[in-house]
């Protein structure tokens, strides 16, 4: 039936063999390329079709395009934004990060359980946050992620079990007694039986002594006020480095790649970064000594029960592949020091505060303590043991409630490693009106886990979750509701899952022991300053008082709260009315109190205030709406950067380049040293590092080499010639805006108003009144002023924003409203309404818009050429944009088929001539960013030195 000859391809499959690889590789390669293109294309289409977005999750309007909702979240008091959003939008809220990026703020129990527990290692920490951890604590447990975290945690765990923590109770009790004895002494010696204390500082010192002894078997002597540089550096470290973040700090911590952050943290001259570096240096020195002495003791069979001994022991028994490195061991010590000291002290502060606020709770707690104490004495014991502390139900209810209400760590920051789906406890309604019970999220999404928000979740903790009430822990609700999330009372205060606070049992016994000691011996009450209390967000939530001067403080190195302490009724029932008022603090300059000793570089002439506290141009970036209209409107803000934002960007780049200069300088110093410039007899000048016997971060060359050496870990080195050229040239790249600041701001305001118009009709109305009429009034006023001052002043006849707004309007009409005719009309109106209007309004920018409109919308090459001619005749300078536009037209014109073959050469010749006259350097295709070579070299070197790629070059 079938004519086989007519169907050769059906049976003839031999063509498969006709193209053996060796004979025609290019054909095969071609096939593979086609195939991969198709597969790639299909995959790209598939990805596009299935692209997951969280844009439809309800959330607050963005404060600004640049910083989104981050200022509200990071600058307001702890939890304020979380609670507000939670009430308005539920437990999963879409917030905006920098540059309009979507993020989620999560307090939904099931979603949190999934992120912390079920899928713990699929949600890594934000790289910029881990960088902060690295600077403060090194590459320890709080920094680590994934397999490194797993390995480190395994080695650490033996030091943090239940029995180990219980064994420390006697240490906590001893430290507590030492503190309260000093309080009592002061009360007795005070003539009016009152004394002023900074309880926050005392608690901080007490927890430092506790951690010193329990974790390292080391006496810091903080309560004895032993002069100790190390202690001083640690006190207030969190608040000094992270408190009151300015907008620039928020932006820095949000958009900069890790390598830039690392560059700054290592070399920047800012006080807070110097503080962090200095503390790191000291901590490395102290912990190195401690590790060495522990290792020696273990070798001699004198092992102790402190955490460090257990850790060194555990590490010794690990096999080489799973061991901690020396650097990691030191980092763990630094992590324990910071994570274990500041958090417990802060938690205790909040406990004290709530007890002072609630005398009835305080009295009931004291009663329970006294009864327990009596029982201990009755059984022949001398002090509270771990089981006594665990056995006091009201104490534990008070502590749970205080930790629920005031979680010392209030946010955790995570990023999805892959596309994922979050289960939800409560269905949410998206902005499309869809009700969903699980939420797909894209890979890379950054989420903020709101510990503060979850701890007040009404589904879990009852409808009165917003009220401080220890009674809830005796009701049949509390932790029993909701999925299992946290380790203590189902709170998230100690986080959860694979990253649960490793020291939570330690912390709990410490807080129990110290709280019992305080309440047993003193009565607490509030002073009026409580009205000024703030929950200050410094990564850890620190209580501060707003607006109170620091000058009264003599020993404060961290913020504290005003509370009255009154010695409690002694067991003998004797009267005692000694009051202790806690000392004042302030959030105005709360973190400037860290004492700087001689080796800690003092503020000097080129001292720069902390990026985390100084008002900078960033601080005004997100200003209040500029007009009534703006504040009433619900329109989103413009997407383009405002002049203030551009300026702030330039500032930010300046910061990076300053740090880069120092980096380059120190590199040169090191290179010359490696190159044998120094003889072996020369002494090193490595700042305080060498003096304290530890490895310096980097060494400075001696002053004789022509470098100005400052005790500043390398900051302040004279800049070598090459870096000057290099950095000066790249410094020019980001470019500062050309206009003066005030003018920029005026223009920004106008632009903002302009963007609030919803239609081109509305915009046109606005133009007539708020641009042309206003500019006319301005001109008349200026002329009057000119007459009054008898022409002695240099006046302008149009407002500074006038030329910019004309060009901007033309572009907006053309692009946003697709209305090129009105764009041209605006130009014509500006041109003809008055001479001043033409002179000021029809600037190069406006002409460029005119040219672009003529070409892109009308393909009117003659009008383009006339416009350029008009510019030349009227003395309006062309710029590179003019030249680039002509180039584009020159390139596109021959492909447009708009002119006859005879006309075309003439048109092209006119374009060429016009292009030559317009001038402008447009060799952009040959343009190579200056400094790229050096940057690449630096990157290669850094990657060689850093096996973890902590700077994230390869991820960026
Ligand atoms: C009331 C006091 C404390 C609170 C509220 C607290 C809270 C937390 C939280 C929320 C985390 C998770 C942080 C994150 O993943 O980013 C954490 C981690 C950690 N905490 Fe605590 N902490 C306290 C006391 C302590 C103490 C006393 C120590 C040590 C003796 C300690 C050592 C650590 C360490 C090493 C981690 C890292 C755990 C890991 O990532 O695997 N903490 N803590």
Task: Write structural notes for this entry.
This protein is an alpha+beta fold. It folds into five domains: 14-50; 70-137 and 410-492, Uridine Diphospho-n-acetylenolpyruvylglucosamine Reductase, domain 2; 146-408 and 501-581, Orthogonal Bundle (Cytochrome p450), CATH 1.10.630.10; 605-626 and 639-666, no CATH class; 670-842, no CATH class. The strands form four sheets. Strands 1-2-8-5-3 form a five-stranded mixed β-sheet, sandwiched between helices. Helix 15 packs across helix 17 (326-357), helix 30 runs antiparallel to helix 31 and helix 34 packs parallel to helix 36 (903-918). The relative contact order is 0.10. Protoporphyrin IX containing FE binds at residues 141-142, 153, 215, 335-336, 339-340, 343-344, 347, 408-409, 412, 493-495, 499, 501-503, 506-507. Protoporphyrin IX containing FE is lined by residues 141-142, 153, 215, 335-336, 339-340, 343-344, 347, 408-409, 412, 493-495, 499, 501-503, 506-507. Residues 744-903 form the Mtf2-like C-terminal domain. Pfam families: Mtf2, p450. Its cofactor is heme.
């Amino acid at each position: 039936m079938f004519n086989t000859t007519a169907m050769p391809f059906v049976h003839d499959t031999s063509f498969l063999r006709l193209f053996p690889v060796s004979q025609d590789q290019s054909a095969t390669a071609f096939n593979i390329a086609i195939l991969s293109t198709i597969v790639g294309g299909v995959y790209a289409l598939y990805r596009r079709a299935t692209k997951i977005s969280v844009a439809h999750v309800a959330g607050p309007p963005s404060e600004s395009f640049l910083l989104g909702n981050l200022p509200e979240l990071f600058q307001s008091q702890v939890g304020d934004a979380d609670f507000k959003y939670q009430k308005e939008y539920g437990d999963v809220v879409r917030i905006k990060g920098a540059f309009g990026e979507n993020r989620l703020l999560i307090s939904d129990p099931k979603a949190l359980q999934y992120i912390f527990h079920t899928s713990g290692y699929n949600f890594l920490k934000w790289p910029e946050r881990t960088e902060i951890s690295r600077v403060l604590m090194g590459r320890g447990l709080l920094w680590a992620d994934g397999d490194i975290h797993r390995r480190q945690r395994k080695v650490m765990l033996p030091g943090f079990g239940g029995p180990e923590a219980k064994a420390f109770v006697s240490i906590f009790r001893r430290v507590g007694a030492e503190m309260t004895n000093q309080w009592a002494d002061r009360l007795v010696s005070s003539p009016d039986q009152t004394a002023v204390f900074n309880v926050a500082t005392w608690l901080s010192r007490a927890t430092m002594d506790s951690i010193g002894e329990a974790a390292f078997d080391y006496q810091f002597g903080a309560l004895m006020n032993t002069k100790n540089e190390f202690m001083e550096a640690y006190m207030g470290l969190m608040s000094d480095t992270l408190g009151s973040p300015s907008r620039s700090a928020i932006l820095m911590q949000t958009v900069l790649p890790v390598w830039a952050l690392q560059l700054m943290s290592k070399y920047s001259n800012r006080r807070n970064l110097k503080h962090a570096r200095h503390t790191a240096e000291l901590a490395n020195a102290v912990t190195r000594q401690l590790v060495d002495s522990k290792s020696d003791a273990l070798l001699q069979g004198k092992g102790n029960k402190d955490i460090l001994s257990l850790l060194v022991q555990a590490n010794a028994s690990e096999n080489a592949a799973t061991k901690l490195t020396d650097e990691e061991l030191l980092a763990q010590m630094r992590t324990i020091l910071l994570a274990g000291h500041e958090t417990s002290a802060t938690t205790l502060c909040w406990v004290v505060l709530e007890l002072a606020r609630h005398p009835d709770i305080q009295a009931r707690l004291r009663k329970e303590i006294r009864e327990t104490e009596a029982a201990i004495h009755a059984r022949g014991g001398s002090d509270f043991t771990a089981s006594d502390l665990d056995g006091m139900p009201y104490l534990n209810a008070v502590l749970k409630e205080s930790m629920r209400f005031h979680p010392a760590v209030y946010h955790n920051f995570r990023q999805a490693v892959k596309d994922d789906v979050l289960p939800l406890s409560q269905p949410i309604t998206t902005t499309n009106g869809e009700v969903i019970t699980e939420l797909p999220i894209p890979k890379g999404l950054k989420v903020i886990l709101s510990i503060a928000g979850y701890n007040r979740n009404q589904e879990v903790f009852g409808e009165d979750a917003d009220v401080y009430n220890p009674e809830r822990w005796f009701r049949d609700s509390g932790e029993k509701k909701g999925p299992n999330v946290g380790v203590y009372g189902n709170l998230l205060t100690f986080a959860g899952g694979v990253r649960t606070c490793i020291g939570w049992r330690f912390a709990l016994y410490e807080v129990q022991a110290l709280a019992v000691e305080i309440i047993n011996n003193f009565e607490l009450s509030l002073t009026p300053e409580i009205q000024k209390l703030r929950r200050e967000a410094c990564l850890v939530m620190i209580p501060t008082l707003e607006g109170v001067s620091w000058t009264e403080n003599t020993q404060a190195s961290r913020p504290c709260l005003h509370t009255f302490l009154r010695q409690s009724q002694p067991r003998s029932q004797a009267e005692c009315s000694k009051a202790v008022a806690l000392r004042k603090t302030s959030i105005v300059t709360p973190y400037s109190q860290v004492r700087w000793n001689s080796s800690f570089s003092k503020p000097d002439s080129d001292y720069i205030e902390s990026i985390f506290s100084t008002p900078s141009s960033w601080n005004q970036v997100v200003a209040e709406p500029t007009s009534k209209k703006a504040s009433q409107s619900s329109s989103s803000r413009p997407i383009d950067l405002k002049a203030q934002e551009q300026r702030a960007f330039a500032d930010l780049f300046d910061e990076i380049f300053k740090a880069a200069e120092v980096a380059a300088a120190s590199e040169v110093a090191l290179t010359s040293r490696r190159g044998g410039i120094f003889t072996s007899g020369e002494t090193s000048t490595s700042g305080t590092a060498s003096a304290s016997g530890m490895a310096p971060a980097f060494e400075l060359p001696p002053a004789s080499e022509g470098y100005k050496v400052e005790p500043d870990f390398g900051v302040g080195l004279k800049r070598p010639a090459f870096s000057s050229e290099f950095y000066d040239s790249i410094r020019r790249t980001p470019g500062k805006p050309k206009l003066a600041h005030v003018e920029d701001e005026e223009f920004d305001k106008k632009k903002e108003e302009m963007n609030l118009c919803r239609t081109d009709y509305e915009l046109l109305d606005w133009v007539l009144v708020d641009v042309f009429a206003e500019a006319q009034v301005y001109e008349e006023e200026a002329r009057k002023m000119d007459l009054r001052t008898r022409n002695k002043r240099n006046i302008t006849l149009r407002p500074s924003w006038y030329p910019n707004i004309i060009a901007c309007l033309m572009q907006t009409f053309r692009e946003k409203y697709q209305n090129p005719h009105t764009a041209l009309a605006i130009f014509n109106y500006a041109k003809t309404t008055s001479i001043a209007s033409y002179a000021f309004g029809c600037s190069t920018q406006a002409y460029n818009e005119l040219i672009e409109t003529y070409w892109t919308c009308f393909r009117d090459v003659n009008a383009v050429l006339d416009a350029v001619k008009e510019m030349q005749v009227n003395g309006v300078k062309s710029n590179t944009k003019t030249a680039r536009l002509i180039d584009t037209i020159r390139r596109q014109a021959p492909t447009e088929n708009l002119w006859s073959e005879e006309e075309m050469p003439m048109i092209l010749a006119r374009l060429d001539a016009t292009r030559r006259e317009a001038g402008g350097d447009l060799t952009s295709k040959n343009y190579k960013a200056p400094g790229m070579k050096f940057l690449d070299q630096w990157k290669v070197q850094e990657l060689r030195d850093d096996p973890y790629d902590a700077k994230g070059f390869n991820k960026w």
